[in-house]
Amino acid sequence: MLANIWILSEKAENLPELCAGARQYGQKVSAVVIGSAADAEQASGAGPDQVYYWPRGATDLFEDFTAPVSALLLAEQPDALFVRDSRRARALAGRIAARMGTAIMANLESCALVEGKLLVEALMFGGAAVRAQKATGLAMLMIGGGFFAAEAAGGKAPVAVQESKPVSSGATLVERRQVETEKVNLGAAKQVVGVGRGLARQDDLALIGDLARALGAEIGCTRPVAEGENWMAKERYIGVTGAMIKPDVYWAFGVSGQVQHMVGVAGARVIVAVNKDKNAPIFKQCDYGLIGDLYKVAPALTNILQKS
Amino acid sequence: MKIIACYKIVPEEQDFLVDPDRGLSYARAEWKIGQYDLNAVEAGAQLAAATGGQLLVLSVGAAELENGKLRKGILSRGAEALGLVIAPELKDADPHQTACALAAAIRSWQPDCDLVLCGEGSADVYGQQVGQQLGELLGLPAFNAVSRITPQDGRIRIERRLEAEAEVLDLPLPAVLTVTTDINRPRIPGMKDILNAGKKPVAVLPLEIKAEQTLEVISTLAPKPTPRQCVLIEGDSADKVAELVGHLQKELGR
Ligand SMILES: Cc1cc2nc3c(=O)[nH]c(=O)nc-3n(C[C@H](O)[C@H](O)[C@H](O)COP(=O)(O)OP(=O)(O)OC[C@H]3O[C@@H](n4cnc5c(N)ncnc54)[C@H](O)[C@@H]3O)c2cc1C
Fold this sequence. Notes:
The structure holds 2 protein chains of 2 kinds. By secondary structure, chain A is α/β, with parallel strands linked by helices. Helices cover 24% and strands 30% of the residues of chain A. In chain B, the strands form 3 sheets. In chain B, strands 11-10-9-12-8-1-6-7-13 form a 9-stranded mixed sheet, with helices on both faces. Chain B has a single domain (2-204), classed as Rossmann fold (3-Layer(aba) Sandwich).
C-alpha cells in the first residue's frame, strides 16, 4: 500500500467516490477542500482520515489556491493526488502539476498498485491506444465520475483549517452565472439512439425523436453535433471525452465510426449502424449495419415499431 | 497584441498498424495537426486582426516537425511566423516536458509576447493540462475552458464555460489561455494562403532545458478488440428495414 493519498474535488459531494478509490491503494487518505464550512463538514464524513480545509470567499478564484495547496503537498509529500475531473479542478491541478514537476495522468482505463507504484492505463489517440505508465514523482490522476464507486463511510475525520491564503494571479472576477444544463443519464439507458453529422439540419432531430420514443430509447450524439453544431446539449455526446455507455442496443444514425466516438459504445451489447456510405468505418465495428439513407430508415423503423 | 498559438502534430490513428499481440506501430502513419489546436490558432488569428497585432505559432517535438506540408498547413491559417523546437528527447514527451519546452522556447524566442493560446487538448494524450502548466511555469495567469476573448485596454476579458456555470474574468497581460473547441470554426485555408505560407519565416529553436520525463511508459498497445458480427444489409427500402428489425428481435430474444 501507499502511505498517503490526497484527494481533491471541486465539489465535496464527489469526495466519497474518490475516497473509496484512494482507500484501495493508500493507508491514509487526506482530503483537500477549497470551499465553504459546509463543504468541509461534508468532506469530513466522506471517509478520509483527515481534511485540509481552505475557506474560499465569494470572489476568491478556485485556481488561486495553487500556491497554498502546492506548499502543503511539498511539506507532506503524499505519494499520489487523485483529482475529480471538472474544468476548474483541471485548471488548478495543471498549475499544481507544474509546481510539483509532474504530469497528470488522465483518461484512465485502470489503476493498480504494482511494486509499490500506481500503474495507470490511460486511453490515447482518442482510444486507438492504451498506454500503461507510472509517475516518477508525485502521481497525479484525473478521475472521471463513476471510475470509483462510493462506499458507505462512518465517522468524522478531523478538519484542519488552513491559514495560508490564495495568491491572485491578477485575474479578477466580473461575473458568474448559472447556465442551463440538461440532466440526462445515458449510462443507465437500455437503448440509445446516437446521431452523427449525417443529419443535415437540427430540425431533422424530430425524426430521431420519433424513433427514440417508439424504441423507448435515450438520444445521444457525436461530439461535433453537440459542440460545433450545438444541436444538442453537451451532456449528450458519446465518446472518449464524453459519455461512456453500455446499453443493450446502440443505434448509430449518420455516424462515421471514428475511434473517439466508438470507444464510448464499446460496452454496448449490440451496435446497429445506419450510414449511406458503405465504406464508413462503423460498418467494421457494428453487429448489424444498414447501408442506406437515414432519412428513409428512421421513419420506416418508427413505423414498424409503432405497429408491433 | 503579440500572440503565440501552440500546437502539436500527431500521427493519424486510422493509419496505425496493429499486430496480433496488440503491438502498435505508427511508422506508416501520416502526421496531422491536432484538431483542437486549430481553434487556438483561429482565435489567435482573429485577435491579431482585431487588435492590429501579430500571430505566431509554436510547436515542440521530434523529427516529424520537419514535415514541410504541416509547416505550410499551420502557417496558412493567419500566422506570420513559426517557431519549432525539434529535439529527439521530445519524442513522445509527457505533458510536463512539453510545457517546460514551450516555456523555455517562449522565453528565448518571444519574451515580449502578450498572449499564449493553447487548444483544449492534444489529439494523442489529451491530458488537458499543458496550457495550465505553461502558465504556471511562466508565472502568468492561466485559464482553461475559455469560450470568448475580448481585448481591452492593456487587459483582456474572458468568458469561461464550466460545467454548469459561465464565468467572466478580467486578466492582465501577458496571460496563457486554453480555448474551448467551439470558440470558433477554424478557417479552411485557400490555395493562396498555402502558397503564401511557404514564404513565411520558420525559426528552428534549440531546446535550452533538460526536460526529464516525469511519466515512465511501460507499454502502448491497441485496445482489446470487441468482436462484432458485422452483418450488413444493403438498401433502405421498408423490406430491408424490416429485415433489420427481424435480426434484432432474434438477437434480443423477443
Ligand atoms: C481529442 C479528440 C477527442 C474527440 N472526442 C470525441 C468524442 O468523445 N466523441 C465523438 O463523437 N467525437 C470525438 N471526437 C471527434 C471525432 O474524431 C470525429 O470527428 C467525430 O466522432 C465524427 O462525428 P460524426 O460521425 O458525426 O461525423 P462524420 O465523421 O462527418 O460522419 C458523418 C457520417 O454520416 C454519413 N451520412 C451523411 N448523410 C447521411 C444520410 N443521409 N444517411 C445516412 N448516413 C449519412 C456519412 O457517410 C458519414 O459517415 C474527438 C476528436 C478529437 C481530436
